Amino acid sequence: MKKSSASISMQCLVALAVSLISATAQTQQTTPAPPSAVAAQATVAPRSNIDMLAEIKKSGKLRIGVAEIVPWAMHDKEGKLIGFEIDVAKKLARDLGVKAEFHPDEFRYLIPDLDADRFDIIIAGFSIEAHRALLVNFSQPYNVTDVTIAASKKMGGDLKTIKDFNKKGVTIGVIEGTTAEDLAALAFPNAFLHTYTEDSELFTDLVAGKLTAAVADSPRLDILSKLYPDAVSVPTIAPLGTFPAGFAVRRGDMDFVNYLNSWIAARSADKWFDSRRIYWFKSTDWAANL
Question: Cis (ω within 30 of 0) for the bond into 244?
Fold first, then answer.
């Protein structure tokens, strides 16, 4: 029996390694917005006059922008999207009485593509931040995530404290446009931040010893350290920050926001969110599907 359990655990770890380190080849996304579309984030986005609830019901589908980040959204071995945010989006669409239509996107393009009407809502572990609230309307939080740091044993195995990492010559990898990038910039102003557009490239470089460390939202770095204990370690440092995640929609349609807040309250009350968090964040049972 013990041998069988170990075998299952190893299968899960191998599947996780493929998911975390291999770049995702499949996508349903149309051509992404050009970088110039991202540059105008200092402005206030215009208000929408569209009744999105009515439009969604009329079309029979909810178009969802997601970022492919393990275990929030990823492809299984059959090419289907799975993950915590995928479950959330499917449940929201089902309760609305419509179909879920997914649009995988790079994290940095989510807001520009939402404004360009490529989808109706962002469901991507999107942290609620003041500068983003100039561009979108947020729902109330439906999840909370810690941002943590992991070190390359080759490049930063002897670094144990925030002060150790906050030095010239230290290179820290982050995903561009994420809260992890913002928090890393605040915590490590003297270090060099190397930005990535895909987490697979970030994790590959960390494992290969091309970075001193990486900053990302949990539990991904903990998983990575278990997959590659000889290459990656997680120092006993308190989380760099804890952020609330909400749905993001175009500015102006508060009826849509009110519906989303009511839905979050209902799914919180019946413990649906709790069950999904336990499955996706407290276990690796889902790895068998990868």
Answer: no
Q: Which of 175, 164, 155, 256 is closest to 217 using CA atoms?
A: 175
Report pTM.
0.77
Q: What is the DSSP string of 86-140?
A: HHHHHHHHHHHTSEEEEEE--GGGHHHHHHTTS-SEE-S--B--TTGGGTEEE--
pLDDT of residue 16: 62
User: Cα 58 to chain center, whole Å?
Assistant: 30
Checking 85-89 for CB contacts under 8 A at 24+ apart, the result is 85/123, 85/124, 85/125, 87/276, 87/280, 88/123, 88/142, 88/273, 88/276, 89/62, 89/64, 89/123
pLDDT tens digits for 82-106? 999 999 999 999 999 999 999 999 8
Rounded CA gap, 285 and 273, in Å? Answer: 17
Q: What is the token pair recorded at 143?
A: 């999840």
Amino acid letter, 72: W
Q: In the Cβ-directed half-sphere of 209, how many Cα atoms lie within 13 Å?
A: 8
Q: Phi then psi for 100, rounded to 5 degrees?
A: -90, 125
pLDDT tens per residue, range 188-238: 999 999 999 888 899 999 999 999 999 998 888 888 888 899 999 999 889
Cα 209 from Cα 110, distance rounded (Å): 30
What's the sign of the alpha-carbon dihedral 23, 28, 30, 33?
A: negative
At 38, is the pLDDT very low, low, confident or very high (cuts 50, 70, 90)? very low
DSSP-assigned letter for residue 246:
-
- CA nearest to 280, candidates 20, 8, 71: 71
| 154 Cβ contact list (under 8 Å, min separation 6) | 209, 231
